[in-house]
Structures are given as C-alpha cells and as structure tokens.
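User: Predict the complex.
Assistant: Input components as received:
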Amino acid sequence: MRYAVLGTGIVGRTLAAKLDSLGHEVLIGTRDPADTLARTETTPTGVAPYALWQAEHTGVRLARFEEAAAHADFLVNATAGQVSIEALAAAGAAHLEGKVLLDVANPLDFSRGLPPGLDPVNDDSLGERIQRTFPALRVVKTLNTMNCQVMVDPGRVAGEHHVFLSGDDAEAKKSARELLYSFGWPEASVLDLGGIETARGAEMVLPLWLRLMGALGHTDFNFHIQGAGGPGAWGGH
Amino acid sequence: MRYAVLGTGIVGRTLAAKLDSLGHEVLIGTRDPADTLARTETTPTGVAPYALWQAEHTGVRLARFEEAAAHADFLVNATAGQVSIEALAAAGAAHLEGKVLLDVANPLDFSRGLPPGLDPVNDDSLGERIQRTFPALRVVKTLNTMNCQVMVDPGRVAGEHHVFLSGDDAEAKKSARELLYSFGWPEASVLDLGGIETARGAEMVLPLWLRLMGALGHTDFNFHIQGAGGPGAWGGH
C-alpha cells in the first residue's frame, strides 16, 4: 500500500517509520520540503531536526502535501490540529477523493498558554471539521488518545488497553482496523465509538491525558475501558 | 461522621444510601424539602419521585441546603453542575468553612441539545469554580467520571479501574481517599491527578463517557489507566 503521512513532527515520523518497517511505500507530506530539510534546531520538547531523522530513514521520502496525497492510497493526518484543514487543502481536494484518512491529530490550542486547551470543543471536533470540509474523504478518527510510541507499539503498555474509532464510513473503519492490527493492536482492543461525531469524545479526553502525563511522569500509559468487553477478550494478555 | 449530600437526584440518593449503610449520619440537602417531597412524576430517564425513595431510606433525612450543610462535617456536591454554585451559596459560606467537599458533579450543558456539552471547559472547571467561589471550602473533585452505581460499588465493574482525585488540600484528599476505601475502592485504584486545576481533565472526559455509554449500551464501565502503576497493584483483583 502507498501511504502519505501528513506532518513532519514526532507523530508523523513515528507513524511513517512504522509503515515503512511494515513494507509499505511511504511519503511524508510537508508544505515545503526544502524548508523542512533546512531546519537545524531541536524543538523545546527535544525533537531533533527532520533532516537528521530523514538520514536514518532512507525508505521514507519527503514530498509536498500535494505530491504525497496524489501518490497515496491511504492518508494519515499527523499535522498539528490547528493547521490540519490548511494542510489538507494544500494537498488538494481532488487528491483526497474516495481515500481513507486516518486522523490522529488533536486540535490543541496553545494560544492561552500551557497546558493547551482544545478548539473546537463541545459541539464540533477536528475529525468532523475535516469530514465536513472534504466530504469525499473517508475520515476515521483514531489513535489520537495516546503517545505516538504507543500508537505503533501497543505492547509498550503492559496489559489491556483501547484504541478508539470514530467515522461514518464502515469500509474505511475496516481498513483502519486492519492497519491497527498490523501495528500490533489485538482485535479486542479496537473500540468503535460510532460515527465521526463521536470524535468529540475522543478529542476531549486530551486534557485528562495531559494531566495524567504530569501526574505519572511518563507517557507509556493508555486508556482501558474496563467493562467494555468480557474477560479474556484480549486472549493471552 | 455527619454527611450532607447536596442534590436529590439519582447520584445524591445513591451516595446518601451508601453513606447511610456505612453507619454515617446523612442529610440530603435540597432547596425546598416540601417541594421536593411533593413531586410525583418519574423523570424522562426513569428516576422515581424522591418521596418514594425517601420512604425506603428512613435513615436519611431531607433538609434545606443550609440546614444540611450546617449539620455536616463533610459535604458531597451531587447537584446538577449548572446549579452547583447556587446550591452552595444557598448552603451559606459560613457553613462551608473549613469543611471538605467531595465534588462529584459535572458541568453538563444541555442548552444546545443532546448529548450535552460542558460549561465551563478548557480554561476553567466546575471544581475550580467552586474552590474559587468558596475559598474556605476544601474541594476534592472525584468520582465524576463514572456512573453513580459504580461510585459506591466499584466491584460492579470487574477488573482494575481508576477513580481520580483533584484538589489543593492534601488533608482533604486524604479524607476523600479514606471515604473511597470505605466504598470498596482498592488503594491502588485511587489516582491523584494533582491540584484542583486538574479537574479540567477529569471533567472533560465526560463527552467520551457519554459516547462509550452509547457504544456499549450500558453504564457498568469505567476508565482504567493502563501503565499507571506496576502490575499487581490491585492485589487480588
């Protein structure tokens, strides 16, 4: 399969590396590849310049949003939530048509300081906003409720835990499930919340996630919905 | 101990019945006891009139907010979140001074239809608002992330799951912990998020809780933070 991962941050890199390791053809989309490769600074949160990562991941190719989307069968939105619509618009609606988009982003709003709040919230969500703006895209909100290392390696967190799905297209959710299984998520760990409207719930959990990170002092944790399934649903776990 | 449970809805009744069964002296606070007792209708969600419940719980006494608060050592806010400040104001700031308040309410906003959103959200929370309005009260936000039957009987949900604590007063949080233990919560199930500001996280999880209820078709579930503690932290569970 040909994947386009939009976003060159730590989430995009982690997902791209995983997809590459699974034998997929992966393009990372960015606004301006030359600009992305020219950056030399490490971010305040310790993320190394993209070029350093690129040198170690030669199987992944950097491209403009538009080229990445045109090339791919399957898209992943790993851009910062506040610029996701803009990034998808740059990819071009014609290149999104009929394709599945895994939306793993969160609409974190840093404009009022730290920790960030969310925007939109309550009566809208980033997942819905993307689906509404690009109606021919088949949006599945998933994986946004955990650290990116856990997304691609659920075994980092011992025991049973869940990944949520929200989306209006049943076939697209089936594709998303299959991708999650290939990342190591057991079948029973995938919890379908319903239509894309349920992304409101999955996104609004982020403020709790941020405070749990503060309280626990690490990011190797995840939500498990106890009572969601029968005991033993996770098999050998 | 003498408890005042503010709020005559299903949450207040369930908590009051549990406290009564544990041998505490319990008053339920309401604006106007005669009015509360005169209601005969069952609510749209199937909650029976208060008077019927009262007849079966003769150990619990109904009183005005002010009388209930004056009498009690320990308060529980089980009012609807949108009227909690008003209910506490009716209780009288003088009767709140130095007392611990367990705030189990959620600021659900039904003004834009169902499912409800939250107000406040992002840069404030009901827990903080109560603490700010009544600075001499020692507010602990807890138990608001689950159905009330699970609050008082955590064993309804098989396996490990968590109850969060948010509050600025360490002694008050210790008292809250002890009450939770008496409800059957194992020590390892109590997860201290930090100061009262962290109530923002615990409250913003409600939209996900509501969608989980929709997806699962029941309310006997709860959040477990996998990776929060070592394996076996729950002992025999």
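The first helix of chain B runs from residue 10 to 21.
Let me know if you want any component modeled separately.
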